[in-house]
């Protein structure tokens, strides 16, 4: 153990925890990735077709819908957490699912949180395919479905970038998973909630170790994003 | 082949008004007009991308007003080429055949001769983003031709190309029209392109078709002052007919008198259109010619442009003549020089004021 600055000491211990693959660090990291990746998968499954639907179909209030989605990008996560808590608690309409304080509940909450972001970004990604290209595809003899599929295929890198951003928001999010998951050790504790708790308990080494991992994940997402955007 | 019968349509705040036109099989049909006039909307309406509010569209005499674009056997090439950036050249060119149900292998075999023909076979596995503007244009054209369209629609296809590539592309288009007998409709605002390619021409201004006819007629004998100005008639003069004897009218243009062949009656307001090519300049006053309009005046400016020069002469009104640079040198034409300017009465196109 090095004596001196607790931050320096904590940092060194954190590196040791990561190198030694500390079981608690590994377990929290795996749970975080599992919850956020699953939430991103389900959100993409729902938001991508809905975003495409909004882009391809003309309807009254379309502009208002897109504006609302964009407003929801900045939705406070604690508000989502509170609403989901009420929905999933025993007094709520989905209490019978018994998802409160489970990873399942956290997945549902993060899914709800990032759906507007993925929908909005899907609309933006598809809007990047200009009108001339759309008309060219149609004039070349493509049916409506073939036109839709070609446009989605052409926008796939922009859509993927949106999905990566959604994952980034999900894994970095703390407020709603704290409320819905309860930060239960061995059950619902994830990187962000563990950092919050351990910092308040002055357990800096574990917080820094988890922080480094969270930053590494964020860095990985950013790298993937820049690779995708380069296409 | 395709006919618009009093077609009107609205697109946001823009309106295409009561357009009637007929594009014949094998025509190279130019649609010209100023920016925002509705040229592209008209082209897209031919493709079936906009449904008319009223009027009919006929193909070989059969009404196709409601026929969707994918059923019309047209292909559209936009100014920016609209290539698919995530598809290789071969995939771009074979796209139309693939969506029409052809297998990948067959489609690729089908377009292979086209890639050779357009000189892009060596680029088959490249992505559009790695190609030059000229190469992208040829890929876009090959993709359009690959579906064997009845009508090829081109939206200002030359505007983004450098002059050298433009010349090559014009040669490609000429060959395509002549050898394949393809019907081509091209939107353009270039009179030069029209001169080189068009067999038939329509002028559209503010959503209305204001002139249509054989390209040579529209360019040299425009129907209105507005069209004359748009198609680039260099000398447009407003005047009054003072007399007309057997179809040879005397027209007073601000004190300057011209003789022109027209049926306009005395007292009628007219516009005279004189192409700069038809204005002949001579030095000295001793040459006898058959030209009815002849006057001695002073050169105001000489602007050289490649092998030709534009000479402006103050004749009371400003008149422009186009000469070869060699003629300018041989005649010693410089600002201030005296010249004799002549224009044949038959070279003056007269537009009646009611047009």
UniProtKB/TrEMBL annotation, chain A:
InterPro entries: ABC_perm_TupB-like, MetI-like, MetI-like_sf. GO terms for biological process: transmembrane transport. The chain crosses the membrane at residues 33-57, 64-87, 107-126, 157-184, 204-228. It is found in: Cell membrane; Membrane. Residues 29-225 form the ABC transmembrane type-1 domain. One of its GO terms (cellular component) is plasma membrane. Keywords: Membrane, Transmembrane, Transmembrane helix, Transport. It holds the Pfam family BPD_transp_1. It is a multi-pass membrane protein. Belongs to the binding-protein-dependent transport system permease family. This is Sulfate transport system permease protein CysW. It comes from Methanoculleus chikugoensis.
UniProtKB/TrEMBL annotation, chain B:
It comes from the Archaea. InterPro entries: AAA+_ATPase (IPR003593), ABC_SmlMolc_Importer (IPR050093), ABC_transporter-like_ATP-bd (IPR003439), ABC_transporter-like_CS (IPR017871), Mo/tungstate-bd_C_term_dom (IPR008995), Mop_domain (IPR004606), P-loop_NTPase (IPR027417), Transp-assoc_OB_typ1 (IPR005116). PROSITE patterns: ABC_TRANSPORTER_1, ABC_TRANSPORTER_2, MOP. Residues 1-231 form the ABC transporter domain. It catalyses: tungstate(in) + ATP + H2O = tungstate(out) + ADP + phosphate + H(+). Its main location: membrane. This is Molybdate/tungstate import ATP-binding protein WtpC. It comes from Methanoculleus chikugoensis. The gene is phnT.
């Amino acid at each position: 153990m090095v004596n001196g600055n607790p931050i320096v000491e904590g940092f060194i211990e954190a590196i040791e925890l990561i190198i030694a693959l500390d079981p608690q660090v590994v377990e929290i990291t795996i749970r975080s990735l599992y919850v956020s990746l699953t939430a991103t998968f389900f959100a993409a499954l729902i938001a991508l077709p809905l975003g495409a639907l909004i882009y391809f179909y003309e309807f009254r209030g379309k502009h208002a819908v897109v504006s609302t989605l964009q407003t929801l990008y900045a939705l406070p996560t604690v508000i989502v957490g509170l609403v989901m808590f009420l929905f999933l608690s025993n007094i709520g309409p989905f209490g019978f699912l018994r998802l409160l304080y489970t990873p399942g509940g956290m997945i549902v909450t993060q899914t709800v949180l990032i759906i507007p972001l993925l929908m909005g970004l899907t609309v933006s990604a598809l809007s990047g395919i200009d009108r001339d290209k759309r008309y060219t595809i149609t004039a070349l003899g493509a049916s409506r479905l073939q036109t839709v599929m070609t446009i989605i295929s052409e926008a796939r890198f922009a859509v993927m970038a949106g999905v990566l951003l959604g994952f980034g928001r999900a894994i970095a999010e703390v407020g709603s998973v704290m409320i819905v998951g309860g930060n239960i050790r061995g059950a619902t504790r994830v990187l962000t909630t563990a950092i919050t708790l351990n910092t308040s308990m002055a357990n800096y080494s574990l917080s820094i170790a988890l922080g480094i991992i969270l930053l590494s994940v964020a860095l990985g997402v950013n790298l993937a994003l820049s690779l995708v955007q380069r296409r | 082949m395709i006919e618009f019968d009093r077609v009107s349509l609205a697109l946001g705040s823009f309106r295409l008004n009561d357009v009637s036109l007929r594009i014949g099989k094998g025509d190279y049909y130019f649609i010209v007009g100023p920016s925002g006039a509705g040229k592209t909307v008209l082209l897209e309406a031919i493709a079936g991308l906009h449904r008319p509010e009223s009027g009919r569209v006929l193909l070989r005499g059969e009404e196709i007003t409601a026929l969707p674009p994918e059923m019309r056997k047209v292909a559209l090439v936009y100014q920016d080429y609209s290539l698919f950036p995530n598809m290789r050249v071969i995939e771009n060119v074979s796209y139309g055949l693939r969506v029409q149900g052809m297998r990948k292998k067959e489609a690729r075999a089908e377009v292979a001769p086209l890639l050779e023909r357009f000189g892009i076979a060596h680029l088959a596995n490249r992505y559009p983003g790695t190609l030059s503007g000229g190469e992208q244009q040829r890929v876009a054209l090959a993709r359009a031709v690959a579906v064997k369209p009845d009508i090829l629609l081109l939206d200002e296809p030359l505007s983004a190309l450098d002059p050298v590539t433009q010349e090559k592309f014009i040669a490609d288009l000429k060959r395509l029209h002549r050898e394949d007998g393809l019907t081509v409709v091209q939107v353009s605002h270039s009179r030069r392109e029209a001169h080189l390619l068009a067999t038939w021409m329509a002028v559209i201004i503010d959503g209305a078709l204001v002139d249509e006819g054989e390209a040579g007629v529209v360019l040299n004998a425009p129907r209105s002052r507005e069209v004359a100005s748009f198609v680039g008639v260099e000398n447009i003069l407003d005047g009054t007919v003072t007399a007309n004897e057997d179809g040879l009218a005397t027209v007073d243009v601000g004190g300057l008198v011209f003789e022109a062949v027209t049926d306009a009656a005395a007292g009628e307001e007219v516009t005279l259109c004189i192409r700069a090519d038809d204005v002949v300049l001579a030095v000295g006053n001793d040459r006898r010619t058959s030209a009815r309009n002849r006057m001695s005046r002073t050169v105001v400016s000489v602007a050289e442009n490649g092998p030709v020069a534009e000479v402006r002469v103050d004749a009371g009104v400003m008149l422009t003549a186009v000469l070869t640079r060699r003629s300018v040198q041989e005649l010693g034409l410089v600002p201030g020089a005296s010249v004799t300017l002549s224009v044949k009465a038959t070279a003056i196109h007269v537009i009646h004021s009611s047009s």
